[in-house]
C-alpha cells in the first residue's frame, strides 16, 4: 500500500469514504504519483493569476479563499473543509491561471499531483469527472446563495450566518470552537473591526456565544438559538 492510500485509510469516516468513491477508478500510476504535503497555518499556497501547475486535495485542516480585487481590501469570502480539490475547477473550465488566492487557516495536509497527471486521469475517468462537476456545482450554488443573502443582512446577522456555516462544517460532538481574530471576522463579513467587536460582545452578553480567551465557543443549544434568530429574517429553506 502506497503512502497516499495509507493516509486515506487513516482519515475520519466522511473524508475517507468520499475519497474512496472519488478515486474508485483511479489508476495505480496516479495513486503512486500523489505526494503528501503538510503546510503550516497562514501559508498562501495558491496565488490568483499564477499558472495552474499543481492540484491540491485538502484532506485535513481548513483553507480560506481571499479576494483582493476591490481597492486591495482583503475579503475572505469562503472557507473550505475536507475534502476539497483545488485546481480542478480551473482545469474543467479551461483556465490556465488560478482564479483565487488560497491560504491555510489551520495547519493543513494535502494530497498533491501535477496538473498534467490530473488531466490525464480526468480525461479517462467519467466517474471522477461527474463527481468533480457535482462538487463544483454544489460549491458555486452555495456561494451565490450566500453572497445574495449578505446583500440584505447587516451587522450581527452577517456574523450569525458565518457562525452557522462554521458550526455546520467543523463542530465536534455538538461544540464548535472558532479561533478567528477580529480582523478575520471582519474580512469574512465585510464589517469593520469596530462593528465586529460590538456585535461579538452583544452576542456574548445575550448568551448566543461563549468565549475562552480569544476563542469563540458555540454549543448545540446556542447554535439552535442563532439559527432561530436568522430564520426570523431569512426563508428557512435558505439556511
UniProtKB/TrEMBL annotation:
Protein name: Crp/Fnr family transcriptional regulator
Keywords: DNA-binding, Transcription, Transcription regulation
Coiled-coil blocks: none
Keyword DNA-binding belongs to the record: yes
Alphabetical list of PROSITE patterns matching this protein: CNMP_BINDING_3 (PS50042), HTH_CRP_2 (PS51063)
One biological process term in Gene Ontology: regulation of DNA-templated transcription
HTH crp-type domain mapped to chain residues: 153-222
GO molecular function term, any single one: DNA binding
Pfam families: cNMP_binding (PF00027), HTH_Crp_2 (PF13545)
Lineage of source species: Bacteria, Bacillati, Bacillota, Clostridia, Lachnospirales
Residue ranges of every copy of the Cyclic nucleotide-binding domain listed in the record: 18-122
Amino acid at each position: 500500500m502506497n503512502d497516499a492510500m495509507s493516509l486515506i485509510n487513516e482519515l475520519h469516516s466522511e473524508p475517507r469514504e468520499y475519497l474512496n468513491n472519488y478515486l474508485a477508478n483511479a489508476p495505480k500510476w496516479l495513486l503512486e504519483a500523489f505526494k503528501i504535503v503538510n503546510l503550516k497555518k497562514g501559508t498562501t499556497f495558491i496565488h490568483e493569476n499564477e499558472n495552474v501547475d499543481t492540484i491540491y486535495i485538502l484532506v485535513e485542516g481548513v483553507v480560506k479563499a481571499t479576494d483582493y480585487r476591490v481597492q486591495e481590501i482583503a475579503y475572505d469570502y469562503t472557507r473550505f473543509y475536507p475534502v476539497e480539490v483545488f485546481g480542478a475547477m480551473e482545469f474543467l473550465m479551461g483556465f490556465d491561471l488560478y482564479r483565487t488566492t488560497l491560504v491555510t487557516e489551520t495547519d493543513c495536509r494535502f494530497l498533491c499531483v501535477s496538473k498534467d497527471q490530473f488531466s490525464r486521469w480526468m480525461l479517462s475517468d467519467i466517474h471522477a469527472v461527474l463527481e468533480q462537476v457535482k462538487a463544483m456545482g454544489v460549491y458555486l450554488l452555495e456561494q451565490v446563495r450566500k453572497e445574495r443573502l449578505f446583500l440584505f443582512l447587516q451587522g450581527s446577522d452577517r456574523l450569525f450566518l458565518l457562525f452557522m456555516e462554521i458550526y455546520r462544517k467543523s463542530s465536534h460532538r455538538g461544540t464548535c470552537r472558532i479561533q478567528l481574530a477580529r480582523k478575520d471576522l471582519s474580512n469574512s463579513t465585510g464589517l469593520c473591526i469596530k462593528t465586529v467587536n460590538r456585535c461579538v460582545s452583544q452576542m456574548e452578553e445575550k448568551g448566543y456565544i461563549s468565549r475562552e480567551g480569544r476563542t469563540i465557543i458555540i454549543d448545540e443549544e446556542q447554535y439552535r438559538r442563532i439559527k432561530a434568530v436568522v430564520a426570523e429574517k431569512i426563508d428557512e429553506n435558505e439556511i
